[in-house]
Amino acid sequence: DKGYEYTLIDCKDNAATQVSQIENFVTTGVDVIMVHPSDPDAIETACKEALDAGIKVMCWDDEMENTTANWVLDNTELGKEIGKLAADFINENFTADDPAEVCVIGYPSTKVLKERQEGIEAGLEEYCEDNYEVVATTEGLEAAESQTNVETVLQAHPDCQVFVGTGAGPMNGANQALLQHYGGAGNIPENVGVFTTDVTMQQLEAIQSGDQAAKGIVGFEGSNTDTASACLEMIEKVAGIDGEYSGEKNVFRPTMEITSDNIAEIMEGM
């Protein structure tokens, strides 16, 4: 809409492919490169070549060295916001005499997800009113794996009510496991909920339905439109559309709670 020309390519999570793509952009002589790294360390040299050629470089998600700016998440703080969202639900539905049974779904082998999990645990501890107990911690990245692991948790803890996780996979998997556990949508007890991050249509549709276990997520900017607008604004700053970039090297993206209270607005922008 603004008349910019752009090329969008996919490295298919292959660092060598991504290095070659960046080098081709340098040869082409673009004004700005935005990269979501497959392996940040592997592309540092290629990004330095871009900077040396006078090309501005914006990294999405990693705090790289050879960039103009990095558009990143504070994953520990994001985790704390997830923990706070779950704590609000726990404080509304449980007491010290009747504490919530909580399951944390993490993925500690990935650095950013380990940080989120640690943040979630810190958020629960900070915001809950001595009315919860973590009865299980399990792993989950994709939905299928998360569902299987939550089903195992429910076998050992059939009354576990609150599930907190690090992404869309844990929410979608836990939600499906709980739907099976309770016999389908409409049968989920009011004090059972799943809280994670990411903003996918499957998550949003589950929250919007109002009769499933998915209760809330902490989104980065909100809808697809919100994210695209924020990204474009960042690209313009990095590219120097309104003058040379003078912002911070690491620009942390804002987060927001998405629940039944504002789901309709978010869905309009997807």
3D structure, described in words:
It contains nine helices and ten strands. It is an alpha/beta fold. Strand 1, helix 2 and strand 2 form a beta-alpha-beta unit. Helix 1 runs parallel beside helix 2, helix 3 runs parallel beside helix 4 and helix 5 packs across helix 6. The chain is elongated, with a radius of gyration of 21 Å.
Rg calc: 21 Å
Label the overall shape: elongated
- What is the total tally of β strands? 10
Spatial separation of the terminal alpha carbons: 18 Å
How many individual helices? Answer: 9
Instruction: Assign the structural class, choosing from mainly alpha, mainly beta, alpha/beta, alpha+beta, or little secondary structure.
Output: alpha/beta
Main sheet makeup? 6 strands, mixed
Brief summary:
The protein has 270 residues and is of the alpha/beta class. It is 46% helix and 18% strand.
How does the SSE layout of this entry go?
Blueprint: H1 15-28, E1 32-35, H2 40-52, E2 56-60, E3 69-72, H3 75-93, E4 100-106, H4 111-127, E5 132-139, H5 143-156, E6 162-165, H6 168-182, E7 193-197, H7 201-209, E8 214-219, H8 224-239, E9 250-252, E10 256-258, H9 263-268
Helix pairs in contact: 1-2, 3-4, 5-6
